[in-house]
What does this fold into?
Amino acid sequence: MKRRTLLAALPLATPAFGQARYPNRPIRFLIPWPPGGSLDALHRQMFDIMGRDLGQSLVIENMPGARGTRAAFFLTQQARPDGYTLAHHHLSILRHPFLTRQPTWDPVTDFSYIMQITGFVFGTAVRADSRWRSFDDLMNEARERPGDLTYSTSGIATTNHLAMEEILTRRGGRMEHIPTRGAQEGVTMLLGRQIDVVADSQSWRPQVESGEFRLLSAWTPTRLGSAPDAPTLLELGFGMSVTSPYGVVGPKGMEPEIVNLLHRSMKKALQDELTQAIARRWELPDEYLGPQEYLAFAQERVLYERDMVRRLNLSID
It folds into this structure.
């Protein structure tokens, strides 16, 4: 056989992406919060669907602490950009480099943006047997007894911490902030009467539904169907809503083919009825963005986070 004929008879060379048969082993997924709540439920359902779709399992590793930044540190310092280490990505990661003098990461260029999924449902909850019947009652006491009341969030300089401080400033009040390693820890502290208020994502929801807690305000754009008596911040005159959208990223330098494959599988999992049932159950907002749109969102949001940190003179050093 002549050489030209022989070459024509051979199959085309397989791209490196195809040769790797990605994924050919389990994918590690880092969540910088403790297990539990809407985020955990949503991710686990999506990853179960993705595992069947991709033919490899996605193994969740919870890495709480350090204001939700441990996963980002791992991605930027230890993980290879081969698609086998991914992480939950949230606004505190965009904000963190502006809070410290120590070198950390570039919040835009040091990550591979894959997909924005949804956001948090924040609110302020108290024990049902507390003396505060309304959010105005709480704010009035925070103004009359500055520093005497306590509230928890999932960490210093998190979105809900900054939002709560903004709320208190607008009402001329002050409360002592008690940072925790995750929203569920704040719920446990409130159950044990160690704090007065939880200002966090909806780990408080089971207790609100059971009648143990009272939700004084919802930070969503509209009232929650599960707590229709709780007014929104917009209704209370603050002119703001807080959802803190989050998504999934990988280390800097991931191959576009892998990013696109993961995005397609992740979007399919998000749109699955089982996943949507969880989203409806927890009343999660629709914040979906594809890779390019998610990157563009990060580029724009970083400017806001930088300016906010400077305006409030925040630092964790």
